[in-house]
Amino acid sequence: MRISVQYSTMIVKSLDESVRFYRDVLGFEEGYHVDLPVGAITIMHSPSGACVELIESPLYDVGLYSVGTDVDDLDEVIAVLRAAGHEPEGEPVTTTVGRQVFVRDPSGIRVCLIEHTEEYRRKYMGN
After folding, report:
1. pLDDT score at 127
2. Which of 19, 25, 56, 109 is the most exposed place for a label (fewest CB within 10 A)?
3. Splitting the chain (127 residues) into consecutive groups of 10 residues, what average pLDDT does each group show?
């Protein structure tokens, strides 16, 4: 079972201002952008490879939303979680980048477990 942290997801007040901050001040590069029915997402890549996912949406409060991970086998990870007494928040859902489910750590912080598609991994993760 392989799990690696890929990014932190943050809900921001202004996507444009946040992108400028991470790009122009901290030296991140813009990855990809997705317009949503209610809001938008931009992935910003740091010089070391880790990312932040910036989401502007009136549906969520500003702040840390979750820690995003990449897993090689989502079903295996869910089985390990359940065996250890940790229940995911719902069933896995299919997204544009793969399949995902959320779980909360012992402090209540959301962790997004994502089994990315091979296309996404090749294009954005270099594997």
Report:
1. 64
2. 25
3. 89 97 94 92 89 95 94 95 95 93 92 91 75
pLDDT of residue 47: 85
- Cβ contact 120:98 at 8 Å: yes
Question: Is the four-CA dihedral 89, 109, 70, 73 of positive or negative sign?
Answer: negative
CB 15 within 8 A of CB 42: yes
Are 122 and 98 in contact by the 8 Å Cβ rule? The answer is: no
Tokens standing for residue 55: 């989401």
Q: Give the position of tokens 């943050």.
A: 10
Spatial separation of the C-alpha atoms in residues 86 and 89, rounded to whole Å: 10
